[in-house]
């Protein structure tokens, strides 16, 4: 029986284990993917620490997957071996529950998550339902594509659904793993893009990524600076600090939206400020496979790229620790090879 290398976690808070496993066979409606690269995302800590309810162990994490179709299961049409594909956080949908029937595929009652509900991309091969798979442009290298399957789609999809129009002031709070992509997408979408982060030293990076203006939240009041521009139509909050989110909300324009994608435990919101200007605070889920496909295509056409630190599969523990340290610039990717 043919085998593959895979990285599994045998129990909550257990170590990463590099094991030999049989190469899985795709069932009806599923595809097998030869993994070329897989991003290491902070959400993988949910598997590592057992923080997501109902995870069956041992489990192979990884939901920022880029590779090629290796085999197709029964009943699959429109997908062929050799096609370049990606798989993200959304692990597919049933198409039959009420949310699916209403077109809210992300809210499918099956709640399937790649690398949680089924084994993910920290392996040489994985299987995934067809509904979870996105086509990947031919000119996008796997290492570049992998982080776009989570950090990329999250920021891209939030911005394109934010209600902002080209020329509107759009601020990106945070210039980390999500924010450095958010600034690029906002600039490429034609927004008057403002980067907000802590420290003067981040200004050159913000400008390099496409920001027209940078606000150092340590030296300036970000809300006051945004109001000098007439207020922000959208503030995309990628930072995981509730205090930082609270500090910028006063910079929203009338009918502006604080769009939250950073998973902060809590934040303070001023009801008076919201109601006095018909402002809103809204969360945004990443998206489904077709959203990922759109993000990949947009990134390929416009040159949006993630800044990555790359590790081989056998250094997975080091890669994970680097990601969790918060010091990576800016995404960590496992190069699983061809």
Query: Average pLDDT across residues?
Result: 97
The percentage of residues in β strands lies in 25-35%
Q: What structural class do the secondary elements suggest? A: alpha/beta
- Approximate shape: globular
Please explain how this structure is put together.
The protein is α/β, with parallel strands linked by helices and 338 residues long. The protein has 11 helices and 15 strands. The chain has helices spanning 45-48, 98-101, 142-145, 151-160, 179-188, 203-209, 222-228, 242-248, 271-276, 289-302, 316-325; strands at residues 3-9, 16-22, 30-40, 65-72, 84-87, 125-129, 133-135, 169-173, 192-197, 213-216, 232-237, 252-260, 280-283, 308-312, 331-335. The strands form 3 sheets. Strands 3, 4, 5, 6, 7, 14 and 15 form a 7-stranded mixed beta sheet that branches. The chain is globular. The model has no long low-confidence stretch (mean pLDDT 97).
Give a short summary of the structure.
By secondary structure, this protein is an alpha/beta fold. 25% of the residues lie in helices and 26% in strands. The longest helix has 14 residues, at 289-302.
Topology:
Layout: E1 3-9, E2 16-22, E3 30-40, H1 45-48, E4 65-72, E5 84-87, H2 98-101, E6 125-129, E7 133-135, H3 142-145, H4 151-160, E8 169-173, H5 179-188, E9 192-197, H6 203-209, E10 213-216, H7 222-228, E11 232-237, H8 242-248, E12 252-260, H9 271-276, E13 280-283, H10 289-302, E14 308-312, H11 316-325, E15 331-335
Parallel strand pairs: 8-9, 8-11, 9-10, 11-12, 12-13, 14-15
Antiparallel strand pairs: 1-2, 3-4, 3-6, 3-15, 4-5, 5-7
Helix pairs in contact: 4-5, 4-10
């Amino acid at each position: 029986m043919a085998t593959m290398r895979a990285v599994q976690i045998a129990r909550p808070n257990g170590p990463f284990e590099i094991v030999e496993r049989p190469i899985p066979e795709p069932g009806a409606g599923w595809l097998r993917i030869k993994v070329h690269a897989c991003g290491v995302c902070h959400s993988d800590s949910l598997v590592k620490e057992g923080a997501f309810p109902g995870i069956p162990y041992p489990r192979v994490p990884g939901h920022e997957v880029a590779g090629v179709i290796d085999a197709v299961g029964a009943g699959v049409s429109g997908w062929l071996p050799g096609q370049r594909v990606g798989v993200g956080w959304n692990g597919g949908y049933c198409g039959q529950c009420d949310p699916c029937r209403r077109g809210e595929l992300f809210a499918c009652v099956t709640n399937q998550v790649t690398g949680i509900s089924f084994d993910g991309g920290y392996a040489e091969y994985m299987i995934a339902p067809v509904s979870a798979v996105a086509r990947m442009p031919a000119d996008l290298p796997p290492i570049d594509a992998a982080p776009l399957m989570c950090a990329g789609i999250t920021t891209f999809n939030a911005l394109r659904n934010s209600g902002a129009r080209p020329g509107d002031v759009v601020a990106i709070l945070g210039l980390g793993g999500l924010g450095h992509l958010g600034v690029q997408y906002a600039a490429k979408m034609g927004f008057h893009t403002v980067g907000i982060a802590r420290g003067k030293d981040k200004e050159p990076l913000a400008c390099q990524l496409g920001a027209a203006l940078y606000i150092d939240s340590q030296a300036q009041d970000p809300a006051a600076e945004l109001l000098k521009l007439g207020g922000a139509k959208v503030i995309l909050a990628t930072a995981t600090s509730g205090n930082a989110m609270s500090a910028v909300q006063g910079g929203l324009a009338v009918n502006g939206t604080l769009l939250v994608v950073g998973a902060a435990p809590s934040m303070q919101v001023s009801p008076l400020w919201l109601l006095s200007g018909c402002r809103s605070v809204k969360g945004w889920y990443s998206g489904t496979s077709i959203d990922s496909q759109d993000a990949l295509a947009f990134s390929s056409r416009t040159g949006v790229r993630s800044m990555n630190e790359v590790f081989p599969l056998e250094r997975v523990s080091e890669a994970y620790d680097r990601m969790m340290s918060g010091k990576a610039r800016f995404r960590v990717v496992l190069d699983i090879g061809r």
